[in-house]
Amino acid sequence: MSNVQGLFDFIDASPTAFHAVANICSELEAAGFDRLEEGSSWALVPGRGYFVTRNMSSVIAFRLPEGRADSYRIIAAHSDSPTFKIKENAELSVRGKYVKLNVERYGGMLFSTWFDRPLSVAGRVVVRTERGIEARLIDIDRDMLVIPNVAIHMNREINDGFKYNAQTDLMPLMGSDAVKDGFKNAVAEAAGVCEDDILGCDLYLYPRIKGRVIGAADEYVLSPRLDDLECAWSGLAAFKAADAPANGVNMLCVFDNEEVGSGTKQGADSTFLYDVLDRISIALGQTGDEKYRALAASFMLSADNAHAVHPNHPEKTDETNCTFMNEGVVIKFNANQRYTTDAVSSAFFHRILKDNGIPCQHFANRSDSPGGSTLGNISGSHVSINTLDIGLAQLAMHSACETAGARDLDYMVNAMTAFYNTRVSILRDGEYRME
């Protein structure tokens, strides 16, 4: 269960994408990786590891080989989860008695799961400094807010189906009107500045729930933000545990904004990965031909959790390509390429899993359900390499609290570690050597 507790600790310390990336960076620094800045020149040394962030909410880490950088083994996950973003001018007074916060939804969450549970606020605050501006992470680490349900006596139809209005039903209560301006004070105190020095904020709600093991045989985990911090943490654990590569480059990419389409400067649909790959090639003195040959021999695992068969609604999933918690890593397929897995990338990963005794299962949406997409096909529009989509089976995706299999975490870490330890070379289109 050491991996499970490590995941819980990571999620608990990562209420926002900013905190998740900061924690990844801290672990990389502790493991001996060097921080790079996009605005500085890069002098890279073979055999060493590096990482670089963008927007403080996305990170790309890589370990260079002592030998030739003749391929890339890339794992991609995302740092964000559906939540509520706090608007500017956030405080709303109600009849001179209550103060609530004005929020808007970020991503597609299950609204009902956010009601009647303790919430708080975390994110990024940009403050005035003597030299200019500086971004600081904050976490108001206490039970501060609640989104209260309307009593059954005032909404008799709630259990017969109800459409929530994002502007009227989902505003969190902060306190009495006596604490007006209390939110600004709380943010300033958490940032260690006076209110006038706050120049900008990216602040979000998060549920005050700690991860826990549940089930009759302790076989499940219950936690917020399993989608997709479970895959991000698994990738980080594998990245650190993998052998130092003799040839080829190991990379870990954790992108922000997947839940809202990835179309930001720090999302999978940005140039971030392309830019880092290009700068590695330049710093290593590769020719254009060497760069393109390396990409042709490269593979990416796009890691984002998958839907498990629901115990109350098994009809929601495909009959033969459905997944269950604790039965292994999920490989995801879609004919319309919402998932990027094809015969080549699937065979490549199946070979790794079988050679290492790691169970796997296959997922496809019902043919009458379009499903969602994720990082692989979006990133592939900028960096075209062999990619497959994987994940772990979970229930209640996009709920404030999600459920997954306790044993699956080890399967994923072991699979990702084996992926990083597999050297690949291309013989011709469709034929690869794996060592």
Description:
There is one protein chain. The mean pLDDT is 94. Helix 4 crosses helix 9. Helix content is 24%, strand content 30%. The protein folds into two domains: 291 residues, Zn peptidases (Aminopeptidase); 125 residues, Aminopeptidase i, Domain 2 (Roll). Strand 2 and strand 3 form a beta hairpin. It is α/β, with parallel strands linked by helices. The strands form five sheets. The chain has a nine-stranded mixed sheet with strand order 1-2-3-13-4-14-18-16-17, sandwiched between helices.
Gist?
The chain has 435 residues and is α/β, with parallel strands linked by helices.
Properties at a glance:
nine-stranded mixed beta sheet, five-stranded mixed beta sheet, 2 domains, Aminopeptidase, 435 residues, alpha/beta, single chain, 9 helices
Record the SSE blueprint.
Layout: H1 2-12, H2 17-30, E1 34-36, E2 49-54, E3 58-63, E4 72-78, E5 83-94, E6 98-106, E7 119-128, E8 133-145, E9 173-176, H3 182-191, E10 198-207, E11 212-214, E12 220-223, H4 226-241, E13 249-255, H5 272-283, H6 288-296, E14 299-303, E15 306-307, E16 329-332, H7 343-355, E17 360-363, H8 375-380, E18 386-391, E19 393-395, E20 402-405, H9 408-420, E21 424-428, E22 431-434
Parallel strand pairs: 1-2, 4-13, 4-14, 14-18, 15-19, 16-17
Antiparallel strand pairs: 2-3, 3-13, 5-6, 6-9, 7-8, 7-10, 11-12, 12-20, 16-18, 19-20, 21-22
Helix pairs in contact: 4-9
Number of strands: 22
- The helix/strand class is alpha/beta
Give me the side-by-side strand order of the main sheet.
1-2-3-13-4-14-18-16-17
Identify the CATH homologous superfamily of the largest domain: Zn peptidases
Using only C-alpha atoms, the radius of gyration works out to 23 Å
Q: Could you tell me how far the N terminus lies from the C terminus, measured between alpha carbons in angstroms?
A: 30 Å
Number of discrete helical segments: 9
Largest sheet geometry: 9 strands, mixed
Strand content: 25-35%
CATH topology grouping of the largest domain: Aminopeptidase
Low-confidence stretches: none
Helix content: 10-25%
Overall structural domain count: 2
Give the overall pLDDT as a whole number.
94
Any idea of the CATH class of the largest domain? Alpha Beta
Rough outline: globular
CATH architecture of the largest domain: 3-Layer(aba) Sandwich
